[in-house]
Amino acid sequence: MADLQRQLKNDAGDIDAPVSAQLRRRIDAALAAAERQPPRRVGVVRSPAFHWASALLGVAGAAALIAVLGRAPQEAPAARSAAVPAYTARIAGPIPLNLRQVELTDPLQAELVSLRADAEKVRRTVERDLGVNL
Asked: How far apart are CA 27 and CA 15, in angstroms?
């Protein structure tokens, strides 16, 4: 950062920009009229009560999150045991599975052909615009 600052100062010193007398007077008047104010920090709270309140709020939030996420959902045991036999009674035997291999090569092949065509169009356009053979 110091190198950048030094380089910027050197570059600014090398600039030869003529300043008219009228502009120089306006700049000097604006600088004289400006009040020098100390820099101030905005948005910084240094109250110990604020620090304690934020710490307690964080602890309470963490405890609430642990309480909510740590509890397993509860189901009624009677509802679970009644639902399973009723569902299994509807299935007479093994579930028939009709499996077939998915053919993914056709869409990929079509995409490759489209991509090659687009690349060829780009090549022709570049050759035409630059007047070069690629």
From this structure: 18
What is this structure's pTM? 0.25
Q: Do 126 and 134 touch, CB atoms closer than 8 A?
A: yes
Instruction: Return the structure tokens found at 127.
Output: 């050759």
Alpha-carbon span 83 to 77, nearest angstrom = 10
Number of other residues whose CB lies within 10 A of the CB of residue 58: 10
DSSP one-letter code for 10: H
Q: How far apart are CA 91 and CA 30, in angstroms?
A: 91
List per-residue pLDDT tens for the chain, 134 residues long: 788 888 888 888 888 778 889 988 998 898 888 888 777 777 665 677 777 888 888 899 888 888 888 776 666 555 555 556 666 666 766 777 777 776 666 777 888 889 999 999 988 888 888 877 76
Q: Terminus-to-terminus CA distance in the chain, angstroms?
A: 45
- For residue 71, give the DSSP letter: S
Token code pair at residue 24: 């120089």
Distance from C-alpha of 58 to C-alpha of 77, rounded to nearest angstrom: 37
